[in-house]
Amino acid sequence: MSDDRAFVARLRATGGPSHDLLVLLDAHRVLTTDQLARATGTPVRTVRHRLDRLRTAGLVDAVRPGREAGSSPRHWWLRIAGARLVAGTAAAPGRQRPSGLHVAHAAAIAEVWLAVRDHGPSAGLALRRWWTDRAGWQEWETTPPGWGARRRRLTPDGALLVDVDHAGVVGTAAAFVEVDLATMSQVVLREKVTRYLAYAEDRAWEGRWPHCPPLLLLTTTEARAATFLAAADRQLAAARRGGLVHGGQAGRDLAEARALMVAACGLVRDPAAAVIDAPVWLLPGEVATRASLAELLAGRIAAQARARHHLQQAAAAAARQDRVDAFHEICDAAGDVARLLDAPAAGQLLAHWPPATRHQRLDDAPDVVDAVLTWWADRDDPALTDRARAALVDRHAAEWSAQAERLLAAAGHDHPRLRAAAAALQDGRLLDGYTLDRLRPPPPRTQERVQETALEDYRAVRDDHVAAVWDRLGWRARRRTTPAQLGAEHDREHLIVCGTCAIAYPRPDPDGPDWHAGEHCPHCHAGTPIPYADRDQVSTLDERLTAIRARLAAGGKATLPPPRRPETTTGATRPLPGR
Length: 579
Known about the structure:
Layout: H1 2-14, H2 17-28, E1 31-32, H3 33-40, H4 44-56, E2 60-63, E3 75-78, H5 80-87, H6 100-119, E4 125-132, E5 138-142, E6 150-154, E7 158-166, E8 169-179, H7 186-201, E9 215-218, H8 222-242, H9 248-258, E10 262-265, H10 271-275, E11 281-283, E12 289-291, H11 293-332, H12 334-341, H13 344-352, H14 366-377, H15 382-409, H16 416-426, H17 433-437, H18 447-454, H19 456-472, H20 475-480, H21 483-494, E13 495-498, E14 504-506, E15 529-531, H22 541-553
Parallel strand pairs: 8-9, 9-10
Antiparallel strand pairs: 1-3, 2-3, 4-7, 5-6, 7-8, 11-12, 13-14, 13-15
Helix pairs in contact: 2-5, 3-4, 7-8, 9-11, 11-14, 12-13, 13-15, 14-15, 15-16, 16-22, 19-21
């Protein structure tokens, strides 16, 4: 007894090869002598001697399960003292002395682990981690409609994580392993698939595994595997019918990556043959399909990679949209931006710059957008304020110069829209996209033709009025006036002129339905009317173009002047346009 206590004390203090055997038994619950020898790379004879010493010390025990022919190897497990030595606690319930059925089942699970570890590299599978029994169990919470949170559990016999290098696919894959020694009925197997489906549908694997782990069943015969897959296929088909797939190819790729995959083989007694690069795994479906383990896991990696690509694209698109929305919110407050930055040009840019509209992307000027978004988030920072002001003013100057060049290129055809655009640019303002697009091609009607059309009906009415007044005048009154003077007085009373495009048109009737239409010029849609007597104060197109060329020569930068309004005067009259 003293020797046993000293032996245990040495194990507790220094560990060593015998302690390593205890650790393996704690991880796998049951291992044969041969499995322990292969797991440690130690001769069987040496391992047997160490196990006998551990058994004498009361740390492990063994049993030889019955078999039809030959002798069964010893199957080892930890006793309570051994479990306390390794884990610090007594063995979990059911582990003190396993039943014969449990011994064979646990040893079969361990054989799958050894097969993947030892034979996987030749097939492109390098075992990274293995979890047996409770170590690989999965727990998650689900909230069914109309119910509170519900705790669920998945209990695979084993879980593996491997590095895969197969057919050009490189990555990390995971899988759940179920071992059936012909002891589970098909009803039990179907119930297991139901739990695995729930695990996949709840996406409980996300954040734990690199993809949705497939269910791999190793059973005793291929016929038994095929029966299991036929039932599983019906369950998988029902799950697919219950889930709607949206989003075209992206939706299909996401659904494929998130769906449960099931495969089975009849090689539970020879798991090494299930690991080597041979198509021995059966897949569900009406047509018999086979694949190797490496091919199965590589397919899961590829499917998850496609899904991840779509998710990253969607996340990037959402981030871009959030950025666009945030920038457009700032553009909606262009007046506040101009006030806060003390830069009217900044407000002008945000109000008319094409990327600031709802249908434009922001990729053309990311530096400007970054400066504005950063400043808007911390408007009290002087450095960020200066950066945003400089970025917006410089961009305003660049946009103004580009628009001025376009306007000058289209200036060969005089028309009201061109004059309105020239007036805006002369004042340092930017044109919106609609106005820019309408500069070319040249309109079918020139400035002169528009003016003729605007007064076409008015002239006849005026001439009739002048003739009637003239007829009523006596000879003395006729000596003090002329029909032309009467026409000029009528024009001053009944005509207004656009302060932007200089088109003269009849004054709307204050009592008529079109009175409000007189607030803006119906020809250029930009200017406001002024008294007809002040028409000489409206700048000509050549004057505006000359001012624009001068500003372009100066570099395009200039402060925005206040809106230009012609002074109301009663200067000398000139003949009616077109006469």
